[in-house]
Design a protein that fits this description.
The chain is mostly beta strands. It has 2 helices and 10 strands; from the N terminus they run βαββαβββββββ. A hairpin with a 2-residue loop joins β2 and β3. It is globular and about 40 Å long.
């Protein structure tokens, strides 16, 4: 697992994109919404800074397969899950970018270990690792971008 904090230059443009982009209910997201089932956002120009940052963190050895965002209202969280597809011939990673993370908005749990995260953190870990979040206890919306990546 790898965690780094990087502030992107185009956060206002990304927020405008989020506000205009429809997200919907998802079975793993409680009291929130996701773009996972409806849109793969990896080709959206305004989000290229997110994709490029994830790639740079992996020394450009991984390519983005999927990019989506989840929004969590008060009480919102993501249920335990992993992203593994069973393919053992290629190395896969998953990652999260904490775009908006208000105080007390829940923490990331990977393999039953709590990861202390803050706004602008990029976290990368093995795609087979079970992960989830604790509840958003704040009155503000938490917004997290997620990616799946495969080795080039």
């Amino acid at each position: 697992m790898f965690v780094t904090n990087i502030i992107l230059d185009n956060k206002n443009e990304i927020m405008n994109f989020i506000n205009k982009h429809k997200s919907s209910e998802h079975t793993l997201v409680e009291n929130g919404s996701s773009t996972y089932d409806t849109h793969n956002l990896k080709h959206e120009k305004v989000l290229s800074s997110i994709c490029e940052t994830f790639k740079k963190i992996t020394n450009n050895k991984f390519e983005i397969i999927e990019l989506w965002f989840n929004k969590y209202k008060k009480g919102g969280y993501v249920k335990p899950h992993h992203h593994s597809n069973g393919d053992t011939k290629i190395k896969y990673l998953t990652g999260v970018y904490y775009f908006k993370k208000p105080k007390n908005s829940g923490e990331l749990i990977i393999k039953e270990k709590e990861i202390d995260t803050k706004e602008n953190d990029f976290v990368i870990f093995d795609i087979a690792d079970t992960h989830y979040t604790t509840k958003n206890l704040s009155n503000k919306t938490k917004i997290v971008f997620s990616v799946n990546m495969k080795e080039q």
